[in-house]
# Entry
Amino acid sequence: MSGADGFGPHFGSEASEIPPLMRPPTPPDRHEPSEPLRFPSTTTTVAPQAPVEVEAQAATPEAPAEVVLGATGRPMPDFPDPRPVTLPRHARVISMCNQKGGVGKTTTTINLGASLAEFGRKVLLVDFDPQGSLSVGLGLNPHQMDLTIYNLLMQRDVTLEDVVVPSGVPGMDLLPSNIDLSAAEVQLVHEVAREQTLQRVLAPAIDQYDVILIDCQPSLGLLTVNALTASDGVIVPLECEYFALRGVALLKTTIDKVQERLNPRLQVDGVLGTMFDGRTLHSREVMQRLVEAWGDTVFHTVIRRTIKFSDSTVAGEPITSYASASGGAESYRQLAKEVVVRCLDV
# Structure
């Protein structure tokens, strides 16, 4: 026999045996009704209460500010504006060096120099590349130069003052170059102490400037060795691409040899990531590998890609004046602050 729901046998109990969901009402007691309850009057006047003093709670400590990570994956420091320069001057000579071309050496030399000049440093730019890109980038015609750094290197009657020209940026001068410099590499082979030739001709400028930036050619030949021998430090601009990353080991070997044999004071001031595009995984991976290999030697500042760099080169002026409010100009100002903190004010 099935139950009422059709599932299984019915062992049946009457409906009255199932506990009701609600208790049935109990019959009222038979007694006389009690007096109605008296409620207090709603028109009573409430006396004003004295203000209650609330004890001041101890201020809870503020939560620590979030750490802002830069493009290198490390916390981004806040670099202060550089202090005014104190006399007498004594220039730090810095070479922009990388044997791979197209990594931003010339662009960094121009715009870092202009940014340092904005902060009150007196800067000398040295175009040490026979292509003369630094001179062209500052609006000079390489074919219309009477004297260049080639003459300064090879002719003893030519002085530094004869060759230095204004760059168009207040506080920044230029030692120009053109294709004639390519002959110097051949002619210097037979010179005594050929690696110290540039150091000798730059000696009078040490007490006249705060910073001397040398734009090296994309090779590790005799001209580059001359630049490293004359320098106190090296900045290595490195494009955030795989091929640019491969050649850094060879450059480090050359720097170590120059430091050991010719210039014990030479050191790597920093590795600068250029042409960085944070939207691509490849750029981020190269930057990560760069930080893993070089550690804190890598600058916190990273130079990102922007068409303004090409436009300013055509205009023959730094990006700091051509597009002063652009991201590229701000990046180089940030780099100038970092260079001052790391290399100059020490």
